[in-house]
Amino acid sequence: MLDEIPTIRPETPLLDRVQCPADLRELDLELLPQLADELRLFLLYSVGQTGGHFGAGLGVVELTIALHYAFETPKDRLVWDVGHQTYPHKILTGRRDQMLSMRQAGGLAAFPNRQESEYDHFGVGHSSTSISAILGMMIAGRMQKLDHHNIAVIGDGAMTAGMAFEALNHAGHLDDNVLVILNDNNMSISNNVGGLSSYFARMWASKPYNFIRTGSKRVLSKIPPALKAVHRAEEYMKGMVSPGTLFEEIGFNYIGLIDGHNVSGLVEILNNIKTLRGPQLLHIVTQKGKGYTESENDPYGMHALSKIDSKADQLQTKVTTAKPSQTYSQVFGNWLCSLAEVDDKVVGITPAMGEGSGMQEFAQKFPEKFHDVAIAEQHAVTFAAGMACNGVKPIVAIYSTFLQRAYDQLIHDVALQNLNVLFAIDRAGLVGEDGPTHAGSFDLTYLRCIPNMIVMAPSDENETHKLLSTGYAHQGPAAVRYPRGKGPGVSVDKNLETLEIGKAAIRREGHSVAILAFGSMVSVALESGNSINASVIDMRFVKPIDEDLIGDMAATHQLIVTIEENSIMGGAGSAINEYLLRSNYQIPILNLGLPDKFLEHGKVPEILTDIALDSTSVTEAIKQKLMDCKIQSEAV
């Protein structure tokens, strides 16, 4: 048990011998507990250097070792759900020496990536996809007459999503060889792992039991009533000592509960399961953050870790750092609490993003108004729609990338019925080190095409507070999208003042060039505008856009520039293009935004520079456009 994360590369003599899983399989079984200790130590060290997810990874160290020890990876297909827990997997599959590049530009991705390693059979980032993916691999392997095992590892949190149960149901119907490992790290399904249940788990995975089980079914298949009675008796017996009846009903052979930190026991059971036929579900119990005291005590708060600075750096930071600005999530959380104090109809809903969305204080102060529906984005949106039908005003706090998963519900259940639901969309635009799976690159595009939707993009903390109030007061569906992390440091006027819907704000008056900026790009536009004496407009609203002000800018300027932290294709700039074309304005237009490709992980300022969305690049792009159009400007 460690109380402090090591800042110097620890000694790991056994781990150093493992360059790939084939090396791991050469080790004696009794050495695996020592390997687990060293792997856990190296994981803590490497994440301390780079930052990233580590709580889930600490919990599956023994499972990761056992899987690569018992199965012939990469020939056998292993798919991890979500990917938060795959750092140990990366370390054991030839990437140990690259771990210090994790989440950095050009370095290892924070999640499994098919382009990164042959051991990453499926790219993940969103939860609850592993069972569907492994079934596809299983069927493809069967069609190609390939002989390999198929294993999906899914957490108890990810199992709450409907997609996981859809895949389980299909697996039971296919009745082919697949292993689903349910990693129960929150005790959400079972309260304890006792000696009796562990004994039964070993028995149900044993060769003698399954030989008798299969042989009896073959004999009794000619006597259907007897076969049915035996099957029911087996279910009832298992149901008395395990929670596996649900999985048995779907068509899985349930094996559990077992200790997920007993690496030797895991290897034994996995070796037995390899000989079984049909869908198997192995239910293990682990402790998130295992081996690090602070993470064990606070598995949610220590889900991920920022880079650990040296003590000297920490001291210097304490001496020199001024009062930090608020994050946008904190602005939302404070606004939500203020609103709930004066409005009885407000309800906060989130699909397992309460802490990340800044809802902790709201959940504590107003528990009867707070609903965390687990990893079930589709349910969250329709749940909100049902509330809105009965006069409640729900606010759905969700990340941009995860709202994509509930797009049908957003259209059909909310917008089509024009219901009063406010979407507080966090992590809009680039998210930096988490990479393309978590980036909110498309929300302006996919939201603005939906009838009845109001779409807003605040430029700072105070604008966020006002636009949230505006969206809440609006009769109908509305969305406010804001970026991850801290704002520019604007103080918040905490009253619940609303803004006129569809009205932009002039932030700077200039000549020749009008920069129409959305959300986080307003600060970039102001820097650029100051250098070339351009007019800068904080558009605020993506839908409806301020057509009057756009028309004024087109009539009094020689170039219109749009800039957004969203895909250029179909985004906010496209909305302005459509209006200008529809209104027959003859004026050059320059659209700036995210390019038509998935952007890899790295620090947000670095990514913005790479794609020419920093202020210097924006200024140069405008100057080039002016020259191309032969427009006379003070900047040229």
From TrEMBL:
EC number of this enzyme: 2.2.1.7
GO cellular component: cytosol
PROSITE patterns per the UniProt record, alphabetical: TRANSKETOLASE_2
Cofactor(s) required for function per UniProt: Mg(2+); thiamine diphosphate
SUPFAM superfamilies: Thiamin diphosphate-binding fold (THDP-binding) (SSF52518), TK C-terminal domain-like (SSF52922)
GO biological process: isopentenyl diphosphate biosynthetic process, methylerythritol 4-phosphate pathway; terpenoid biosynthetic process; thiamine biosynthetic process
The protein's annotated pathway: Metabolic intermediate biosynthesis; 1-deoxy-D-xylulose 5-phosphate biosynthesis; 1-deoxy-D-xylulose 5-phosphate from D-glyceraldehyde 3-phosphate and pyruvate: step 1/1
Protein name as catalogued: 1-deoxy-D-xylulose-5-phosphate synthase
Taxonomic lineage: Bacteria, Pseudomonadati, Pseudomonadota, Gammaproteobacteria, OMG group
